Every structure is written in C-alpha cells, then in structure tokens.
Amino acid sequence: MFDKIVIKARINIDDIDTIVLRNSLEQCTEGDEVFYKSTAYANFSGCFIEIRGDTLRCKCSIHKLYSKGKTGKLDNSRPMTFAIAVRTIKELLLMLSVNPANAIVSYYEIGITMKLSSPANEYISLVQEASGRILWNDANFPAMRQKTTEKSKYYRKVMKIYDKSFEASEKGRDVGDNILRIETVYKRQSVPITELMDNFFLTKIGRIFYTDWSGLKFTRELSATKGVKLSQLDKAREINRLGLTKYKAHYRKMYLDGKLTKKQWETIRTFATAWPKEREKFVEEVSPEEKEFKDRLLAGFQIGIVTPVKRNK
What we know:
By secondary structure, this protein is an alpha+beta fold. It contains 13 helices and 16 strands.
C-alpha cells in the first residue's frame, strides 16, 4: 500500500564511497561544498538520492521498487501488501547503507489501485468530497482525470483520486483499461522509520485510510415515495445536485432577469423553503459505481492490511 516515500538519514561518512558507487551517484560542487546526487539513471532505478555531509535524502516509490525487483518494470498498478512494503523498505535501507535507527520519513503515500468495470473518469465525475473535504479537479489534468482535496501548505494530509490508465498512457506506459487509483499523501512528517515499519503503526494508518475512503461521497440520485409528483421529483433532484442555496439563487436570478413568471418563481421558492420537510419524501439511490468502488476498496484494504507484519524488536 505504500507508494512514494521520502527518507532522511544520518549516515557514516566512511560509507559514502560505497553508496555513491552502488547507486551511480555523481559528484557535484556548490561553492566550496562537495555533494553527491542521482543522475538520469535514477529514472530507471526508481531512487533519487542526495548526500550532503553526513545526511542522505532518498525519494522513491516503494511500490515501484518492489515491482521492479519482481517484473523489471517500475509500476504501481498491481496490489501490494504492507508486509511486502516493509521488506522492500528494509532492502532499500541496506542498499543505502542506512541504519534504521538513524532514519526518519518526512513524506509518504498510502494507496490502492482498482480494476473497475468502466473507465475511471466515470467514477471520478461522481465523487464530491472525501473525509468531509471537497474534492477539486486538479488543474494539471484534464477534467475528471484527477481530483484532490485542497493542497495548500496548511494541510499535511491530502487525498487524491485519479485515472491511472490515463496517467500511465500520458507517460507512454500501458497498465490496462479502467484502472482507478486512490492515495492519501502525508506531507511534512517526522516519523522514525522503525515506527513506520511497526505493525501497530501500519494497522492504524491502514484503518484511517479505509475509514476516509469508505466515506467518499458520491453524487446520488433521488427516488420518490408514493404520491410524489414528477415535477416535485425534478425539483428535488436539482436541489440534491446543486445544494439548496445555489438552487434558490439560480432561480431567483432567472426571475429577476424575466425568464420566469412570478407564479413560477413562487412555486419554486415555496418548494425550496419547505425542502427540509419535503426531503423526507425522497430516498437516495446508491449508484452501481459507488457500490463497485466500495466493494473494491474493501477487497484492496483486506489484501493490504490483513497480511501479518512482524513487530520490530
């Protein structure tokens, strides 16, 4: 379930030559300072490393590193458990000559990839908010290809849902059709890596992830109980989509612009005013897309979190 991660660690300066050779780092200068960083080779290895003094910083995708070791390709479109992620992190630390006791994680992502029955953007178009926060269309992507909660500096936790099939094709890769990915991003963290790999921590963040995403709010259509007129159902569905405030403002403007008669406006306004009580006559329908998403989410969560992870001693 882990994807991108940023590790900061204190290292033994006697190990620098080994780390540089093992990871194909290049020597750089900045004024009087000599440091080392990854070359373009990192695009193939999946690890971006920088060493300044006795401090090492590594940015990579744990999921992609695992996939590369297994298939030879950097890919995060297949399922991965926390247990596998922990093994991959331990192997990474060995490669970096990093003692786990001297390392912290400043950034990490938890994610699940889903194979769905329809194109991912159809599901994205139906979602409105996650964990009580509005999902906005990401300006860096075409509409309905990626939505995120607000990404300002004030938020250390960001939730993201995107069309993995589209994202991969834009990068010249093919992961198959109808692939949706959800991720929770934790920024500006300072988690000891020994704690991050501990079963208690993994269980906690796994359950938070599931709770947040199982509450993902989809647009729901309304159906009516017996005796409700079709015109009332149409009004109710529009209020449900727009929200009561926007609904009233929209039709008030139409009335003021002369596009509605006074009688039409009074009928709409009366229904809107009575909406809190009228709402009881309508029932929300769970769409097939919402049901499928939540079924896949549960299955992905069970795959990721149920596999035992031994507690570090």
